[in-house]
């Protein structure tokens, strides 16, 4: 499945090099992918490859993201990182020790601002029941996080923001797509399946964008730095979830492009998008993340995908020059 500079592989098969092309082989035969213009490969099913292929991909500057059966991100292979800065890594670590709260506050406020913008659309279209939550996001959340100096308490506030967001879905989503609570591993109903799949793809996209900066992927501020994960990608992707993942979900569900009986596989204790459902969601997701808008400060056109990288640069400015870090705002488009 081809979308812009990204190729999605959704079936079982193998990847090999053939001259200067990528060959994907499955039971239907060979599919040839010219290497020019490809930046990312998403392997959403069981795919075999060898070190010779990885060397070929590395020299071409292509990143490969791997996902497991449940649609969760498993790992990334990317070329040897060229943009390495020991000085910035030290500054990033110092900021974690000394200024973590400031950055965490900014991210949570950014989440609240963007959720507010998404829900305000429904409020304007006769969903007046959303007013109390909108007021809470706009007035109370900034006050709550401004006076909070404990990271555990900040994370509780962030969790409450998402919890109330999920509760608001009953005002504008059909009953077949509602849920009682957020269940991740594995998702237990269609809406949880969509959220988990969308968040996983966005996380991988964010990894690729941070790769293009000098930032260290393992040093984060809102999420606790942990073993075996790129926690900074979790941080920078948060404010984009309402804009990209949830906008995609709301459009597909409310316009009946995704339907429970057609696009999901249900088992005893989990629910997953089927192949047709994944292709529909990926197409919508890519349309959203590559949507072009005029950046008011840069005075040029850009995309939400590039805005993720720009947030990385904002963080660098904060770390190196102490310039205010303010994540992307859908309201201001910066």
What does the secondary structure layout of this molecule look like, with pairings?
Elements: E1 2-3, E2 6-9, E3 13-18, E4 21-26, E5 29-34, E6 40-43, E7 47-48, H1 51-60, E8 63-67, E9 73-77, H2 86-98, H3 100-124, H4 131-146, H5 151-168, H6 190-211, H7 231-237, H8 241-254, H9 260-263, E10 264-266, E11 271-273, H10 275-289, E12 292-295, E13 300-303, H11 304-321
Parallel strand pairs: 2-6, 3-7, 6-8
Antiparallel strand pairs: 1-2, 3-4, 4-5, 8-9, 10-11, 12-13
Helix pairs in contact: 3-4, 3-5, 3-8, 4-5, 6-7, 6-8, 6-11, 8-10
Second-tier CATH architecture of the largest domain: Up-down Bundle
Shape: globular
* CATH domain fold name of the largest domain: Four Helix Bundle (Hemerythrin (Met), subunit A)
Largest β sheet strand count, sense and barrel closure: 5 strands, mixed
Assign the CATH superfamily of the largest domain: CRISPR-associated endonuclease Cas1, C-terminal domain
In the CATH hierarchy, what is the class of the largest domain?
A: Mainly Alpha
**Over the alpha carbons, how many angstroms does the gyration radius reach?**
20 Å
As laid out across the biggest beta sheet, the strand order is: 1-2-6-8-9
Low-pLDDT parts are: none
Strand residue content: 15-25%
The class by helix and strand makeup works out as alpha/beta
Number of domains: 2
Helicity level: 40-55%
The number of helical segments is: 11
- Span of the ends, CA to CA: 31 Å
Family: Belongs to the CRISPR-associated endonuclease Cas1 family.
EC number: 3.1.-.-
GO molecular function: DNA binding; DNA endonuclease activity; hydrolase activity; metal ion binding
Pfam families: Cas_Cas1
């Amino acid at each position: 499945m081809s979308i812009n500079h990204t190729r999605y592989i959704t079936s079982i098969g193998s990847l090999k090099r053939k001259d200067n092309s990528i060959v994907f082989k499955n039971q239907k035969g060979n599919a040839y992918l010219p290497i020019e213009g490809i930046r990312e490969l998403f392997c959403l099913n069981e795919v075999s490859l060898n070190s010779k292929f990885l060397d070929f991909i590395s020299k071409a500057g292509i990143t490969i993201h791997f996902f497991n059966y449940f649609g969760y991100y498993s790992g990334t292979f990317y070329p040897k990182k060229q943009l390495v800065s020991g000085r910035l890594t030290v500054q990033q670590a110092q900021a974690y020790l000394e200024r973590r709260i400031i950055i965490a506050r900014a991210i949570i406020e950014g989440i609240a601002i963007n959720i507010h913008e998404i829900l305000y659309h429904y409020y304007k279209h006769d969903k007046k029941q959303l007013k109390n939550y909108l007021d809470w996001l706009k007035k109370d959340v900034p006050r709550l996080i401004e006076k909070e100096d404990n990271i555990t308490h900040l994370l509780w506030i962030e969790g409450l923001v998402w919890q109330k967001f999920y509760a608001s879905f009953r005002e504008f989503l059909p009953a077949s797509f509602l849920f009682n609570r957020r269940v991740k591993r594995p998702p237990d109903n269609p809406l949880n399946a969509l959220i988990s799949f969308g968040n996983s793809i966005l996380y991988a996209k964010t990894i690729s964008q941070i790769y293009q900066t000098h930032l260290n992927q393992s040093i984060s501020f809102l999420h606790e730095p942990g073993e075996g994960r790129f926690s900074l990608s979790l941080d920078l992707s948060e404010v984009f979830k309402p804009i990209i993942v949830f906008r995609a979900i709301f459009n597909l569900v409310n316009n009946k492009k995704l339907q429970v009986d057609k696009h999901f596989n249900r088992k005893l204790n989990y629910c997953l998008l089927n192949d047709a459902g994944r292709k529909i969601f990926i197409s919508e997701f890519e349309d959203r993340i590559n949507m072009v808008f005029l950046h008011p400060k840069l005075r040029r056109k850009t995309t939400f995908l590039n805005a993720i990288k720009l947030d990385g640069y904002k963080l660098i400015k904060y770390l190196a020059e102490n310039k205010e870090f303010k994540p992307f705002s859908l309201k201001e488009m910066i």
